[in-house]
Amino acid sequence: NILGATILGPSAGDILHEYVLAMKQGIPLGKISSTIHVYPTLGMIARKTADLALKGKLTPGRKKFIKKIFGLRGKE
Length: 76
Fold this sequence. Notes:
mainly alpha; elongated; 0% strand; 4 helices
């Protein structure tokens, strides 16, 4: 679960709400990542951030397995 969030920038207040809700309700990053966000908006930043955080948790073995299942190519 998310313990905290810091956002800097001109529209930080518009982006922070999703993280506050996630923290209060115990919503994990995976739920934010899998939520459809209207694009292109600032709200999409929450999803992209969650995607990057979750991507860092993939082990090399899991990455290889996912690539094999979906027939993906590219960097390991």
